[in-house]
Write a structure and sequence with these properties.
This protein is 52% helix and 7% strand. The protein is an alpha+beta fold and 458 residues long.
């Protein structure tokens, strides 16, 4: 039975989503949805470990230990214990720090919020791996189906989906782990709509800012909080999503219920997610991909570049900070597609340590030659790169889909390699191998607390 049929079509959206999520079962999921969930789990654990060791993770953990004490859930990597909300906040913030978390080209980042939220509640409530996978699928469905309808407005208004949509998706996933029925799940989503928050002001600030990552923590923490309130019997308003003065009124324009619920229960948003093999903003990754293609061609010499012409999709270069050839800080370098292309051509990599090379004289020399333009012939989030050397030779490369998109997906071996590289220094290599094995067999795990405790220093 399709779980969405348990809710009348005349109900408010939160009630329909709530009934769907509460009645979803592991057996309803497709094999692809299950496997994507496992990839997300491995990927998000890796980004959380990497963020904890390379970012401001120590400060986040210290804050959580002091202000969110408890013994309900694990702080990944550090191995400390916290309340459910505290663990969700710390793990989500750390998972976002490297900018290497999953991303959907139509509505943004999901896993850095949803997985830490559901992991914390699942650990506290001794949920199984099947439960965690199912909860994630439900959370992704709500995030994505509302996100598709609010993305353009979010972009125009400077809103950050990690904190707005992330709160909604996390509330549903956490509500599932709490064992909420349809009514309580409805209220979890309705309460979450009033906790939604987040602005992308950090993209305009060349100075040091932590909010890009903290907002992921806000989304996960607020989602857990909303679900906890609903599970305790507290109620949110009717029409919290599409009603007058609801979520759509605040963060979108219109709500198309038919589109939002079409295929729900048989077409899973989690199947359509993309992953990030590189660091920095997702909208520069296609530039890295084509730079690597050019760099690998016979006869190419980065020291002899005379002109770089990059065509890509509109959003990747629409904002000045995305097309700048003179980034003012490490943060702004991570959002600059010309910088990504030039570092890719010179160094052949785009990990956090590579972005730090944005001031290298070889990179600066190439940046002065870059022009960008919109290429409407590309299928989705791709790029076309044309590099001319000082002797007139031309090197070109094109991709319609950035590496990691569903149409150009990473292999499981590539996921494992990324996980090991990010987890290096956080945990012993033997422990990393054990985590990989546990994730690939997640549906066989009876208590996901064992996985959470595995991802620690203890």
């Amino acid at each position: 039975m399709n779980p969405i049929t348990t809710a009348p079509k005349t109900e408010w959206a939160a009630a329909r989503f709530g009934a769907y999520a509460a009645n979803l079962r592991f057996e309803h999921l497709t094999p692809l949805a299950v496997h994507r969930a496992k990839q997300i789990v491995l990927d998000t654990i890796g980004t959380a470990l990497g963020g904890w060791k390379r970012g401001f993770g120590d400060e986040v953990v210290a804050y959580t230990r002091k202000y969110a004490p408890g013994d309900a859930a694990s702080i990944l990597g550090d191995g400390g214990r916290s309340s459910m909300e505290g663990a969700a906040f710390a793990n989500a913030t750390n998972a976002k720090m490297l900018g290497m978390d999953d991303s959907h080209r139509n509505y943004g980042h999901v896993g850095a919020e949803v997985f830490p939220a559901v992991l914390a509640v699942s650990e506290a409530n001794k949920r199984s791996g099947k439960d965690l996978i199912t909860a994630m699928a439900a959370g992704y469905d709500v995030f994505g189906r509302i996100g598709r309808q609010t993305r353009n407005t979010h972009l125009a208004r400077g809103l950050d989906g990690k904190g707005t949509l992330g709160t909604l998706g996390s509330a549903v996933a956490a509500g599932y782990a709490f064992g909420c029925d349809g009514v309580k799940m409805n209220h979890a989503l309705a309460i979450a709509a009033s906790l939604a928050c987040g602005m992308e002001t950090y993209t305009q600030d060349p100075n040091k800012t932590h909010t890009k990552d903290l907002i992921a923590g806000f989304g996960a923490r607020n989602g857990v909080f909303a679900a906890q309130l609903a599970a305790s019997g507290l109620c949110g308003p009717r029409g919290a999503i599409e009603g007058e003065m609801g979520f759509i009124s605040a963060f979108g324009d219109t709500f198309d219920a038919e589109a939002a619920f079409r295929g729900l229960g048989s077409e899973f948003e989690i199947e359509t997610i993309g992953f990030k093999p590189h660091a920095g903003c997702r909208h520069v990754h296609q530039g890295v991909d084509v730079a690597w293609m050019v760099r690998g061609q016979d006869g190419f010499d980065a020291s002899r570049v005379a002109k770089i012409e990059l065509g890509t999709y509109k959003h990747a270069i629409e904002a000045e900070f995305r097309r700048t050839t003179s980034p003012e800080s490490l943060s702004s370098a991570g959002y600059s597609i010309p910088t990504a292309v030039c570092i890719g051509l010179v160094f052949g990599a785009w990990y956090p340590e590579d972005i730090q090379k944005y001031t290298d004289p070889r990179v600066a020399k190439l940046l002065a030659t870059v022009t960008t333009h919109e290429d409407t012939t590309l299928a989705a989030n791709g790029a076309h790169l044309k590099v001319t050397l000082d002797d007139g030779r031309v090197f070109e490369a094109r991709t319609d889909y950035a590496k990691g998109e569903p149409e150009n997906m990473l292999t499981d071996e590539e996921f494992e390699a990324k996980f090991k590289r990010l987890g290096e220094g956080a945990l012993p290599s033997k422990r990393l191998d054990e985590i990989i094995a546990a994730v690939w067999s997640l549906e066989q795990v009876s208590d996901v607390g064992a996985l959470a405790r595995l991802v620690s220093q203890g």
